[in-house]
Amino acid sequence: MFRAIADVLRQIGSAVATVVTLPFRALARLFGGASGATRRRRA
Q: Which ranges in 1-43 belong to alpha helices (H)?
């Protein structure tokens, strides 16, 4: 019983963490791609 509740809470927590980190990952990819593009142009 408690194990089932713990599993559900764990799944909800991982889903929330994924939703929260997605915008930051997108920003990091944008800035990372921009800096990589400027490096390639200079070289």
A: 2-42
Spatial separation of the C-alpha atoms in residues 11 and 5, rounded to whole Å? 10
Torsion of CA 34, 35, 37, 41, to 10 degrees: 140
**One-letter amino acid of 16:** V
Instruction: Give the model confidence (pLDDT) of 3-34 as tens digits.
Output: 999 999 999 999 999 999 999 999 999 888 77
d(CA 41, CA 34): 11
**What is this structure's pTM?**
0.54
